[in-house]
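Open question from group meeting: does this chain pack into something compact, or does most of it stay loose? Before anyone orders reagents, we agreed to write out a predicted structure and look at it together. Recording both the input and the output here so the notebook holds the full record.
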Amino acid sequence: MNHTNSENDLLIGRNPVLEALKAERPIDTIYLASKGGSLGKIAAIARQRGIVVKEVSDQKLSQMAQGASHQGVVATGACASYVSLEELLERSREKGTAPFLIICDEIEDPHNLGAIIRTAEAAGADGIIIPKRRSASLSQTVHKTSAGAASWLPVARVSNLAAAIDTLKENGIWIYGTDASGQPYDGVDFTGPVGLVIGSEGFGMGRLIRKKCDFLLRLPMLGKITSLNASVAAGIFMYETVRQRQK
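C-alpha cells returned:
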C-alpha cells in the first residue's frame, strides 16, 4: 500500500507521532530510521500497543514525507479522527466548566488551523468545530503545526456550520464572532458558555455565520495593517476568555 499519496494518512516527525501514541490514536505502522534516543521510546510504546515497527532508510522516510522534515520517523494510520458535535458538548458537561468551543469558519491554511488547535488546547478549550467543505482537515501538516495538540483536543467536522451553531445555541452557548465592525473585545463577558467563531484568512466570517453571532468583537488596530493572521487573532480572544475566567 502506498502511503505517500494522502497526507491525511501520515504522521511525520517525532513529536506528532509520540503525542498520537500517548493519546492512543489509531496507527497502523511506524517507520523508523533507527531505534536510538527518543526514536527508541517511540518504538517501545508502539510495540506495547501491538503496532508494527519497521526500520527503513533515511531516503525511504524522505520519500514518504515528500520533503517534510521527518526527524527519523513516519507513521501511517488515521490522522483524521473526528468526534461528533454531541461528543464535544458532552465533554463540556463532563468538565463541569462553562462550555468553551472554537468554531473555525473556512480556515483553509493547515498551518493556521494547527496553530489554532495548539492555542485552544493550551487555553483549555473543550474542542474545535470545522466545516467539511472549504476547510483544512486534520492532515499531518495540521498535526505538526499543532505540536501534537491535535492528538488531545477533539475536533468535530460538520457538514453544515450554520446548523451546528444553531445546535450550540439550543444548548445555551453564546456565539462570539470576530469582525472589524464589532465592539471592543475587552468589554465583553466571556465567563459564560462561549462559542468563538474565527473567520477565514482572507474574508473573515461568511455572511450567514455572521448573522448567527450573538456578539461581534473587534481587536484594536493601531497600525497601517487592518487585520491579523487568523491564528494570532484567535489566540488573543481565547486568552481573554482564560483571563476573565481565572479572576
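Observations to bring back to the group:
The longest helix spans residues 230-245.
The radius of gyration is 19 Å.
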